[in-house]
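Fig. S4 source data, part A: sequence.
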Amino acid sequence: MSLSDKISNKAEDLTGKAKETAGDVTGDDELRGEGKADQLSAGLKDAAEDIKDAVGDVVDKVKGTLGK
């Protein structure tokens, strides 16, 4: 995962937490829900990037083994 992806995902997560907290404080269920959705989206993006990185590592190992 690139550094810019990590920063973007973390920013989305933090924005979601802020929205959720603001929704809790103001009693705004819609804002609270948006915050939770933002956090979920960031988490899913992180998971997808982790899988992509793991697959890339396996491909590199296979290439290294076949290249010997």
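Fig. S4 source data, part B ends here. The first helix runs from residue 3 to 26.
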